[in-house]
Amino acid sequence: MHAIARHSIVNLITFGLSRVIGLVLVGLIVAEYGLAVFGLLMLVRTLMPGTLFAIFDFGLPDIVARATARDLASGKRQEALRTALAAMLLQAGIGFLLAVPLVVAPTFVAQVLLAMDAQQSAMLAAAIVAHGIALPLLFAAGVAYGSLRGQERFKNLSITDVGSTLAYGLVSLVLIHYHASALYIAYAFLGSHVLRSLQMLWAASRGLRPFSWRDVRPDFPLLFAERAYLRAVVGRRVGGRLAGQLPRLVIAHILGAAAVGLFEAIQRLPLFLRSMISMINSVVMPVVVRMSAKGDKDQLAQLAIDGPRLLLALASLISLPVICLAKPLLHVWLGAEVEPYWPWFSALCALPLFSATAGFWNAMGRAELAFLRKSSVISIWRAAITIVVALPLLTVMGVEAVWLGLLCSMLYATPAVLRLNARRYGIPVMRLVEPVFTVFGASLPAAAVGTAIVTLVDIDDWPRLLAGFAAVSAVQALMLTLFIVRPAERRSLLRLGRG
């Protein structure tokens, strides 16, 4: 638990900084170029490995993370290196195959896949070609990311993420200041990911040293020995990515780029909150693999009880101020055009709270094949529910139909994951739900403060908004400290902070 807390604090500080920079840039891009152009930029990002194209990585980063953690715990450094090299070559090959249509027929990709008209596709065709050229490198770097997770080198991941985001942010600020074409914003984003990929490849190779050059060869049999785990991961990967990324393309084909811009702008902050929780959960699986290899069953059982409670408390500390101040936040951040959608925005920001506990248990279960198979089915059903609910209502409700589909899919997935974990650990479902009610009860005073601030204070600028955030966060932190975090855990966190 101490290792997870240490890595989580590093992740929250560094990844949180980079994500905040991204949120600020969203507001600036929308103000400078409008929702329609922002929507076009988000459509181009669909061609990145971290978005819809992630279904083509076949879960290899997760497989490498698991294999690396297991091999290093067993002292098999050479096997970890060879497995990672084999996965990198496969990923680079997949990236090359996907790059061919992007480089050869960018206009076709823009019009058929991304639903751009002739003028829009002409403007962004060069950016699509550039994405195609970079795809082999970006896919290979995904394996490096998995290797670094398996090595528990989360500080390296944080440094690369913050460095690339700062570079993207500075370049974008200059481009916005001089009113440059939005095409250069797309280039800046791609360039930051190329820089990040190179840094991760270098850090992953350093982490597996010392090795002789005779060891630097891929071992495909070692990688294919994980094929059972691979099949389980692929289903979960496909379901999760389709649920998260397919709505963007459906909206583009039916409602156009401006609707994509509205959808993505509203989604940015909920995705930020979910990514913060995911960053914490990303440190769980390697630690669980290491504990399992050492036979630490008592520690695993304790982690399964304490981890979700602390994660939910931390998620509420971040999410609650956003939920309470949703309306003024949208007004100040994205403008009056987006402000009427604040109820949906508030509901989407509450989703990470409902899924935080299930997400922690999912992260623990990724080390086990049987659990992955069952959770893959849940992911696929989640994607199906989103599409089935949203598609018939899209022309009537607009983008709100997609948000409704996302809410319905999470209402299905969260109880399903809780029941799955209850059977897996032999713990009653109510024992798993108990932290949710406990943290929600402790959050009522902070929610009351946030409601009073919105009712009594006219918030129309960043200083007042940030002051409101600080007030709600301070009350929530006090309540969590008094009623949720145990004394021993407080002392442990203080030691980590001083360290």
List the helices and strands and how they pair.
Blueprint: H1 2-33, H2 35-45, H3 60-73, H4 77-104, H5 106-113, H6 118-150, H7 154-177, H8 182-207, H9 220-224, H10 227-254, H11 257-281, H12 284-294, H13 297-324, H14 326-333, H15 342-365, H16 369-397, H17 400-425, H18 429-456, H19 462-483, H20 487-498
Helix pairs in contact: 1-2, 1-7, 1-11, 1-20, 2-8, 2-11, 3-4, 3-6, 3-12, 4-6, 5-6, 6-8, 7-8, 10-11, 10-16, 11-13, 11-15, 13-15, 13-18, 13-19, 15-17, 16-17, 18-19
Question: Explain this structure to me?
Answer:
The structure is a single chain. The chain has 499 residues and is an all-alpha fold. Helices cover 85% and strands 0% of the residues. It has helices at residues 2-33, 35-45, 60-73, 77-104, 106-113, 118-150, 154-177, 182-207, 220-224, 227-254, 257-281, 284-294, 297-324, 326-333, 342-365, 369-397, 400-425, 429-456, 462-483, 487-498. Helix 2 runs parallel beside helix 8 (182-207).
Nutshell version of this structure?
The protein contains 20 helices and no strands.
Largest sheet: none
| Helix proportion | over 70%
Distance between the termini: 16 Å
Give the beta-strand count: 0
- Gyration radius, rounded: 22 Å
Shape descriptor reads: globular
Strand fraction band? under 5%
Mean of pLDDT: 80
The H-and-E topology, N to C, reads as HHHHHHHHHHHHHHHHHHHH
Query: So how many helices?
Result: 20
The stretches of 5 or more residues where confidence is low (pLDDT under 50) are 492-499
Structural class: mainly alpha
List keywords for this structure.
20 helices, 499 residues, single chain
